[in-house]
Amino acid sequence: MGILCCVCFLQEEEKETRTWNSSSGSKMLIPQTRNIGLPIMNLMRFKGLPILQQLHIEEQLLRTSSENWCIINDGTNDPTIVMGVSGKPAELLEIESVLRDQVPVIRRFTGGGTVIVDPGTIFVTYICNKEAIPDLQPYPRPIMSWSSSLYSKVFQGIGDFHLRENDYVFGNHKFGGNAQSITKTKWIHHTSFLWDFDVRNMAYLKLPKRAPAYRSARGHLDFICRLKDYMSRSTFIDKTVEAAGTQFLLRSFELETIENCSETEFRPSTRFLTNEELEAAAVAGQ
Amino acid sequence: MALRMWASSTANALKISCASKPYLSLSRCFSTVLDGLKYAESHEWVKHEGSVATIGITDHAQDHLGEVVFVELPEPGGSVSKGKGFGAVESVKATSDINSPISGEIVEVNSKLSEAPGMINSSPYEEGWMIKVKPSSPSELESLMGSKEYTKFCEEEDASH
């Protein structure tokens, strides 16, 4: 996968029209109609980036970068289970099936629940300095409220969109799951959107013990819905970028992975769980 | 006095104890702030008794974080540095760093929090304590806020958002 060196991996993308020369060199701005006085946010877009690599990038940026970031990953490559920081495999997963089918399991650095992601999942992440958004208290609920107001612009007039007990829903069907991490100076809010999903993959996940009240004990397929029934992938991503552009001056970045960057001190906590760990968890019931 | 009685009855309704404990100072934001403790801007408290300092997060912090469902704490024998993270709590789908107000060696960790993380919500200054530290630079305590200063800090922080 490679170790990322935050200072040296960024390359400025050569494309399109508008350029802005600063003392740090040329940057490429996303065309926006109104950008005066807005904080800068770096936008990185991927397609099919492995979810572990995406999470490593995010964790490193959260811990080591002083800038604001938006990361969009249009689908990940292989079906992967991603648990929150405190997730207990035996409670959340059908471990026998997971091991039998060799489905990778990741424990990520943010809180929240368990998802199984695949090429039908669209990821959108915001990493912000605490001062980036005026009047926003850096606590879970205000951040969630802010993000839902952003997505309200994306889904305006489409479905019955709202934030419901920390999930993005159309009506009472969930299509977006959220998780966050808050440090002394920054926060991250990332979302996995179910643009599409494979019904068979849901069989790897148990019904969680901690579930929102509105779920009302519904099984996975009665609880979730597909974003593709409401919007195309490109429209969703374009509208998300447009919404972000109402609050930030977006600056496009390309990422280049640097292998074995020995000067990097940061080691991400996000990692795969080993088969041995999953087997032990199954035995211990944890 | 009238304000104190009104605040007391409101506090009772909100299940915050105050009148029976004279050392409690009730802030206007209804978060409890204890006299005799020191406070960091990142909303951790320190209780210095002899050679040991006990650290936890404040009532203001637990109230804003929501129900704590998981706590990540270091092992005894490790060290903490002033202003640096030593653990995290999970609440409302978010992990939030906990930062140490002082530097020193960790001599004890509240192991009960692994099974009962909600004690941080129900008893942030007592049963919800997180670590005990042997301070390496006691003078660091002097740069922390007292109860009145912290109460004002919380009020200003909430008012500005």
Quick summary:
The complex is a heterodimer of chains A (286) and B (161). Chain A is α+β, with helices and mostly antiparallel strands and 286 residues long.
Seen as an oligomer or otherwise, the chain set is heterodimer
Number of helices of chain B: 4
Shape of chain B: globular
Percent of sequence in beta strands of chain A: 25-35%
Distance between the amino and carboxyl termini of chain A: 29 Å
In spatial order, strands of the major sheet of chain B run 3-4-5-11-10-7
Sheet with the most strands: spatial strand order of chain A? 1-14-4-5-9-13-12-11-10
CA-atom Rg of chain B in angstroms: 15 Å
Q: Which chains have the largest interface? A: A-B, 26 and 23 residues
Q: What is the mean pLDDT of chain A?
A: 86
Can you walk through the features of this model?
The complex is a heterodimer of chains A (286) and B (161). With 286 residues, chain A is α+β, with helices and mostly antiparallel strands. Helix content of chain A is 23%, strand content 28%. Chain A has 7 helices and 15 strands. In chain A, the strands form 3 sheets. Chain A has a 9-stranded mixed sheet with strand order 1-14-4-5-9-13-12-11-10, sandwiched between helices. A 4-stranded mixed sheet of chain A has the order 8-6-7-15, with no helix packed on it. Chain A has a two-stranded antiparallel sheet with strand order 2-3. In chain A, α4 (140-154) packs across α6. Chain A starts with 9 loop residues before the first strand and ends with a helix. Chain B is α+β, with helices and mostly antiparallel strands and 161 residues long. Helix content of chain B is 22%, strand content 32%. Chain B has helices at residues 2-13, 59-65, 119-122, 147-159, and strands spanning 24-26, 32-34, 38-39, 44-49, 52-57, 68-72, 79-80, 85-91, 94-99, 104-109, 131-135. In chain B, strands 3-4-5-11-10-7 form a 6-stranded antiparallel sheet. Chain B has a 3-stranded antiparallel sheet with strand order 6-8-9. Chain B: The H protein shuttles the methylamine group of glycine from the P protein to the T protein. Chain B: This is Glycine cleavage system H protein.
